[in-house]
Amino acid sequence: MRPTNRPVYLDNHATTPPDPRVLAAMRPWWEENFANPHSVEHAMGREAEEAVEAARGHVADLVGAEAREVVFTSGATEANNIAIKGAARFAASQGSGRQRVVTLATEHKCVLECVRDLASEGFEAVVLPVGADGLLDLDVLRGAFAAAPTLLVSVMAVNNEIGVAQDLAAIGAMAKEAGALFHTDAAQAAGRVPLDVGEAGIDLLSLSGHKVYGPKGIGALYVRRRPRVRLAPLFSGGGQERGLRSGTLPAPLVVGFGEAARLAAAEMILDGGRVASQRDRFMAALGAEVSGVRLNGHPERRVPGNLNLTFPGGVDAQALMAAAPEVCVSTGSACSSAAVEPSYVLRAIGLPEAEARATLRIGIGRFTSPADVDRAAAALAAAWRRVAAGTEPARAPEAVE
Length: 401
What we know:
Belongs to the class-V pyridoxal-phosphate-dependent aminotransferase family. NifS/IscS subfamily. Catalyzes the removal of elemental sulfur atoms from cysteine to produce alanine. Seems to participate in the biosynthesis of the nitrogenase metalloclusters by providing the inorganic sulfur required for the Fe-S core formation. There is one protein chain. The longest helix is centred in the last third of the chain and has 39 residues, at 251-289. α1 (20-31) runs antiparallel to α7 (251-289), α2 (43-63) packs parallel to α7 and α7 (251-289) crosses α11 (370-389). By secondary structure, the chain is of the alpha/beta class. 40% of the residues lie in helices and 13% in strands.
């Protein structure tokens, strides 16, 4: 049982706690069979390989793919890099005339940096705006496709800050019509919303184990097999993972990711209903104490556990977090070497700087209890009153990436 003096964890977009069933599935592969899953010449190696392949099947099932279309990586950041840079560089090596790579202003930082890197290599980078609700206007995307032949479009399935869910099927259909590859970062969507790569016309999809109650350090990239998507690997090695991601697979992490994916697929509806109930309870309790607190992002087209909230009264979110140390939430701010800037996602949906600085991201998850949300709402409301009144000592937590 968790000690009652532990902080309430409401930062499930940053990472989720590993499910105890995931930890149990991983443990034998640390202690009893530690063999290299590529050492298939002996029995223990073959057993490890079988466990890896079973996990690959569970990850594939979560997104409606074939097991052989799943490439394991160290996480979604690596998967995004392989997908975006790999597709562009392979196309260039084949003399393709398509140079345009399209993405959104609200994408994860690693996707935006991938696209910027490609721009320095001579590709045309196009970063599209979103509406005030965080959603992509499909007419804007259509215009981007019409302006020049497009190689690839990358659109996050669910935004990691404001929780809005894009229309993947519509984007996939438009990409196919334009002859472009469609990549989606689904790290925040997997296990929270149904995903089917075939129905949505997705060519490349990135996943992360620690966003679905699995271990950190493991992720996956779905690479469509028919018609085949060709990628250039980021680095050289022994040719594991279809030659796209060389290196020894960490069998315990792969097994844990597979078990997390299996549980997510089986319990998605139950989890979603439970999380939505806690979200509504939290919002009702906070709203009763803090008049004028505002939700950012589309109110319906979003994952159930996300609340991106702007607090009234000109409070600073960093000061608000410091005043409520018994609650673990985040601001969504990104760090530079010298200062914390307002979230670029919030600025992209039109929030003024002062409002962006007064915004917290709440991430409710599988293990959040009614007592947790009651305690968190009360603590944040009390902290807001003190900060707004100027009675809280001036202090702020250290900024984190």
